[in-house]
Fold protein acetyllysine N-acetyltransferase.
Amino acid sequence: MAAENDETEKAIETLRRWIAEAPQGGVVFFGGAGVSTESGIPDFRSPSGLFAQKYPYPAEVMISRSFFDEHPPEFFDFYCDRMVFVDAKPNQAHRKLADLERKGIMRAVITQNIDGLHQAAGSKTVYELHGSVLRNFCMRCGKPHSVNELLALHEQAEDGVPHCAECRGIIKPDVVLYEEALDSHTLQASVEAIAKADTLIIAGTSLAVYPAATLIDYFTGDHLAIINRTPTPRDRQADLCIAANVGSVFDF
């Protein structure tokens, strides 16, 4: 165990050296749910994650577009209770990434998360592959609604479905549900950032969700690091694999 810990510490120190020596705008960070677990937001695939819990339907079904269309009351009960965490705060990883951007080292943060914590920590160039719970819009008239408005309307509605006060259309979270396509502009910007990176850091993701997981294929730089508590299908491609909490790796 001591030898394993020593290897992990060596790998962390190597990654920190790569970051320190990177050219301006040379680092890109690609993160998943494991980046936000230290902020109290559950992940999806761990033994205690969202997909492991018992619900009337499988969790991945309940956050699909067809379920949203066919069972809106059940969708919003699940979504508002299990996927929206308005009190969550940025953790050490979020704060350090924002600091690296301010210093000109971090080119961009690409995230699969929908919690908005990277922006709350101060990051400016953030590509949200799966959207954000902070943005919501009326499906009929397009009127935007804040997350707090959505939650209040959910509570007030007899069936739990939030409707727009202007036109009575259903308000949809601006998140990418299963069966929906990623935003093409966000995807293209993410591809371009990764293609220009000298160092790509992938953290807190199982690399099991497509097409996001294929973004690694556009990296042609010098250093690829994967930070994840469990192995990923792409570990063999990485120069470093670090089995540690993301926040502890960025605690410097």
